[in-house]
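Supplementary Data S3. Sequence and structure tokens for construct A.
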Amino acid sequence: MADGDEIFDVVVIGAGIVGLATARALLAKRPALRLAVLEKEASPGTHQTGHNSGVLHSGIYYKPGSLKARLCTEGKRLLEQYAAEREIPFVACGKLIVALDGSELQRLEELHRRATENGVEGLRVLDGDELREVEPHATGTRALHAPRTGIIDYGAVTRAYAGDVEAAGGTILTGRAVRSFDPRSRELWIGTDTGALRARAVIACAGLQSDRVARLAGARPPVRIVPFRGDYYTLGRDTEGLVRGLVYPVPDPAFPFLGVHFTKRLDGSVVAGPNAVLALARERYRRAAVDLRDAVSALTYPGSWRFAARHVRTGAAEVHRDVSKRAFVRDMQRYVPSVRADDVTFGPTGIRAQALGRDGTLVDDFLIVGTERMMHVLNAPSPAATASLAIGEELAERALRDVITSS
């Protein structure tokens, strides 16, 4: 097949959970669309989707009125309905957000206010005795209990989305990394590893590479993706019964990550983590992994240094946990004192694509920008997997209104 012989109305870049959800939403709204999803890896959902912790979020943390708040609440409802229809297992195991002492109570109250405004179902504030009725091995003075927070198999969800796309007539092309864009009079030529194809419009859901794809297309994204590696420890089979569901700390509002927490998984295992340390490789999952291009990108970006300067103490604690199992376990023991170092083994690991401004501010909401005939999802961290169906609907509606109709 000659370059450019593959012709589509829409190309979605990235076969992660957001890209596939967007593709299936487009095909549901416009069944006649010639649509392809390009994925540079050999199979969908390889990176952030494939390293997801599996939590089905309720919408507790997010600023009321934000895209995260709106799409998480709606996305959870849609995903639970979808999973039930497709017989994809999920469990509403519940989440406890635990205040250890009085210094955290005001922040816990603010979370309660946000969660209530966001429509989170079944919320209760528990005292120390009540929280131990939910999690007998946990400790704390007060907790916010969200009984409808759950766990799900996002790998199974992603495979189901891919099946939907293909059943609706879409094409998923793997092993097709995007190398160039050539805008022509009425179409875009997209250069890939195995030749060029043509499209009237492009929606880029490129995750860890989203800023690079945007720049490749001629956009000037206001942010750069700075990757943060998150490591977990897994509790042994003899001790996983110490945790029934999800046990979280009260997050520090000055730091954008949630801190070490416990997550029950569908197979009964329990993981604790993650920490959050700057990664020097966007798509490699070993602690010492370095990709020269990724390292230079992160370390020469002014936003990285400004962010680090604002969070010196917290960042140092994250690094200490990264190199010291003992320190990591001490953080676990603050919430579940019975955990011991010989009860846990290292892993798994994930990498979060976080959009960071030049001023060192982390983007706290989903970020979607458009260029002529193109749309770029530049920031879609957690709860993007939970919200995937709602994000897909949002992106499809925007694309049909602003991108595809004008192409």
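Construct B, processed identically:
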Amino acid sequence: MNRIYKIILALLILTGLQTLLGLDSAHAQVSAIVDLSKRSVYVQQPFRVNITVYTKTWFTQPLEFTNLQIPNAFIVPFDKTQPGMFTIGGKQYPGVQFYYIVFPYKPGEFSVPSLEITAQSPPEGSSESRKVIIHTTEQKYTVKDVPKSLKDKGDWLVAKNVILRETWSPDLKNLKVGDVLKRTVTIDAQGTLPQFIPDISGQEQVKWASTYPQSPVLTDTRGGGDANGRSTQTTTYLLEKSGNFIIPGIELPYWNPYSGKLMTASTIKHEILVADNPDLGILTTLKDSLDATQSVKAVSEEKTPFLILGMKWYQFAGLLIIALFVCYCLFSFGRKVFKKFHIKWLNYLNSEQYLFRKMIHSNNSPESFLPALYKWWDNLKKKPSSSIGASLNEMHLTEEEKNIKNYLTVVYEKQEAGDAEEIKKMMRKRFKHKY
């Protein structure tokens, strides 16, 4: 029998520890697995972080999870959960899955930190849902630098595929000195971010024309399950010499991580004929105009004023001074109002009216009632005498009002409690016109 008691006691202790530590059965019901598609990648090479949350029963509410943050990496979330059945340890479990695509941009050793996930799921054998908080395990990975053999190939870009398209305005026919051409190159890169697409304006410089590149326009064109980017780059050509020339094609090498090869996307080269123009004055005017535009652009890009909360420093300083002055005025006014109210409140606590009410609502025991009675009497402004007894003798009391003298006699001479409630009724009746 003692052995049975020991077993029962051990079970109770284990149950208490589970409750104390929050390790109830619901925690065993819900688990999470983090899987990295790759643990060793090159700079810019994306990898996928799959998170599978499964349960032995079912989920009653959508999952709640913290945002994933990794240093020296861009993160593209695809956090719309996908329900399904997942095989874990040879068994099928219902669960949901979501993932992130991570784009590292600096070599080194890093890790995917632990995520906090909140789920609602009932334990086995129960239909009552419980809130469960779980934490995923930290996952380490390595980011390798650009291979030495590829560093000299130009800008480094990692992508599944790159497509280049170009348009010209106007077309490349009937050209003459002083004409202005606008070339727009659109770069669509699959499996990367638009921030990683390099600027190709350096390839467009020629000796027979002045070139004026504009800032690239970046567009995120991600699909339902992958990150894609687009860079639209426009360059203006001012034709300055006559003759036959070749506009070189644009070449953009990129590393395909799936084939493990360096590939190149390119546009075709163009042969053009530029005729003489007798009106060379227009060339100077156009060049000055384009140079001015380029200068304004450079100033706007390189000398952006320092802003605080979207305001220039002197605007922010002026607003701060005004705000401090308003706060000072409000504080001074509030201090005066509080001080005045505080004085009135202290006066009220020592007023006849307050002390009379405190006496009326005091306990009926002599230890409580008599101090309240005397304190009120001491603060009474118009009284025949400083003594309650003497004052009562000078007042024309009715038989009912003489009860207070009897009460004092009972309390002080006979050392009995007396009936304080009767005295309170008489006092209310006697002084109701005053309070």
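The two ends are 76 Å apart (CA to CA). The chain has ten helices and 22 strands.
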